[in-house]
Amino acid sequence: xxxxxxxxxxxxxxxxxxxxxxxxxxxxxxxxxxxxxxxxxxxxxxxxxxxxxxxxxxxxxxxxxxxxxxxxxxxxxxxxxxxxxxxxxxxxxxxxxxxxxxxxxxxxxxxxxxxxxxxxxxxxxxxxxxxxxxxxxxxxxxxxxxxxxxxxxxxxxxxxxxxxxxxxxxxxxxxxxxxxxxxxxxxxxxxxxxxxxxxxxxxxxxxxxxxxxxxxxxxxxxxxxxxxxxxxxxxxxxxxxxxxxxxxxxxxxxxxxxxxxxxxxxxxxxxxxxxxxxxxxxxxxxxxxxxxxxxxxxxxxxxxxxxxxxxxxxxxxxxxxxxxxxxxxxxxxxxxxxxxxxxxxxxxxxxxxxxxxxxxxxxxxxxxxxxxxxxxxxxxxxxxxxxxxxxxxxxxxxxxxxxxxxxxxxxxxxxxxxxxxxxxxxxxxxxxxxxxxxxxxxxxxxxxxxxxxxxxxxxxxxxxxxxxxxxxxxxxxxxxxxxxxxxxxxxxxxxxxxxxxxxxxxxxxxxxxxxxxxxxxxxxxxxxxxxxxxxxxxxxxxxxxxxxxxxxxxxxxxxxxxxxxxxxxxxxxxxxxxxxxxxxxxxxxxxxxxxxxxxxxxxxxxxxxxxxxxxxxxxxxxxxxxxxxxxxxxxxxxxxxxxxxxxxxxxxxxxxxxxxxxxxxxxxxxxxxxxxxxxxxxxxxxxxxxxxxxxxxxxxxxxxxxxxxxxxxxxxxxxxxxxxxxxxxxxxxxxxxxxxxxxxxxxxxxxxxxxxxxxxxxxxxxxxxxxxxxxxxxxxxxxxxxxxxxxxxxxxxxxxxxxxxxxxxxxxxxxxxxxxxxxxxxxxxxxxxxxxxxxxxxxxxxxxxxxxxxxxxxxxxxxxxxxxxxxxxxxxxxxxxxxxxxxxxxxxxxxxxxxxxxxxxxxxxxxxxxxxxxxxxxxxxxxxxxxxxxxxxxxxxxxxxxx
Length: 947
Known about the structure:
By secondary structure, the protein is of the alpha+beta class. Mean pLDDT is 75; it is low at 14-19, 386-399, 511-518, 683-700, 807-846 and 877-947. Residues 908-947 are annotated as: Disordered.
């Protein structure tokens, strides 16, 4: 209104002044604010667009006072002239309109700026000399239209949370809107469209759980979320949310399997295939894990196929000639009879020493074979344990004195040498005196943890003075040489040796003898267990043999060392019972633990349980809050292997030979055609072959036996009349041991089946002259791995064939009759034997001759008695006939019809054919008929033979 009033006053002034020319410029506002809707072209300006001109509106000056148009100029954006234009709506009033040449897009450009200028129509009819107003700035804002829907940044959101807790935010979902204005581009709210889920989402997209989650109830939760903008447009596509519930984080090993099964023959198996370490995001810089497999209960150190120490030495190729200082108690080795023994799973004899009165004094006859300064001392040792009472011997300072294992003084040509092997705490010492009369003693000292850990350890000490080599569990240890310059009493120059203690010096013994005590006193008693204590004089034992003696064929191993990551270390102890892993990266450490394997190369693994332990220690940057993991305990179960079957054959149940052959200088071989076969029976899957069920298949295998025994059944052998002989040359050549007593012959030592066949085929049975019996039974059996697997028991019955000449001798008549009547010596049974070079006067024709002679003799006697009876009847009268009858009755009772058929029971026992039995029965019936025997009563005498 003010502008219009000003313009009106301006016109009046111009009229009053009488100026009729185009003297004034049009006038517009200096700035305009405009709004245009998206997808539209009309701009609404504030204030409205009007242009004013002060020239009077006269008839000749009308054009000068009118507005003919507006002109748009570029603004700051430089696009005003292209996109916008201004038009005049009323020339007289100067009203104008601003519009865009094409619809505008808010998303492309929301703000536009340009300038506008008005010009009048000019002077005269033709409108020449028009005037222009000043330039006004126009700001145009494009108003947005809600044309876009929200779009999620990701189509799938995943997260994992531990169970049992409420979280303010588990995961955040996010959606965007392409509209340009805050009203339509802003996401007003999110919504979970999956029903009945324990989760909620806020307007910012944060998802939280509404209740504690339980991994056992549901491990994974999946649901869908949508979004809305403020124009209520829904998202084009919903987003999927997957939340995994983790069990409560407890630091330690995950995937531990307490029981691991091993099938013998399967090589190596991983012990922890799924094991991994969970540190609950604790930062660690060093990890160390120790895996321990306990096999000490199976054998000393580790399983050695259950062979004894002597058998292991033979299998390892050790040089023969060792002397056993602790042999099994026997009449020939009685110095160990007073020592208590403990059972051992590998059949080796374990001796217990209590540190005081348990001492084994080796006889001089044994010590004399141990001379020389080159020898190898080997033993199994375990300090303490084994139901042993603690040692009470203490020194003056209250410390336990040295415990002596072996103490020995032996003769070397014209001098004596002395040595003693002792332990003190965790130290092992060898006190060696090469010449007790001249040289000075030397002490070799080793500091060993194996001496004091109360476990079995194998010690091998090779002395080739001045060189001394110690092997502990197959590993070499260097000694610290100590020249003992102290006051040591010289050992008496006499030969002696003891195990478990050492004798007191001669000076002390003399003092004690003056106090009327004459027995030898021993000091430095050993407290622990010993086994397999042997000394072999001469050259020292090769290193390869020592390693073989302790080589473990089962234990811990590592799969592939090349796959170890950087910074990883692996260490396995010699007995392969402890494996240590060390590293600094958890992922590499987990991969390494999963490659720890159990290896067993035994042909017949010892079944049973092996305890298993895993101990872990962690070192963290923050030592105060570092994790402490508890020790894991499990066990490895070795299943029962396929048992080998040792079969003895080739020996018949009966062996018949003439008695003189047994009385020869070499006797008779008992098992000349013995065959030993070892086979394995295992299950075979026959389904692939179209057969139902399973089957057993037996495979012959090369094997090693370690003992066979020949035992007479019934009474023991009479050394004055009979004996069993063995080819000792074969036994010595093969290095086997033999025990020959009246109760059995035992051949022991690890050797092949063929060697045992040769030795057993040389076993002979010999009788003294005139000591022939009628039968003798023997039993043969073999075993391996110290009786773990045994063969079938082969029983042999030996029959002695006596000639007729011997039967005629009065002293042998009764024995011959018993032999003929014995059911196990009949001709039918002899037909089943192989009789090389049979004699003409063997038992078969001799028995027939004797039977004929006996029958003829009895027939003659009966005829004579019959004739005598007839004569008696004629001589006696009628009065005496009753008496004769009575006497005849008695005679009838005494009349004997003796039928001796020694072949009957023998034939029935040996299973003679039915035709032969039938003939025997017909003959017996004919003998019993009245035509052959008359009216006399018959007594049939049969003597049954014993089985």
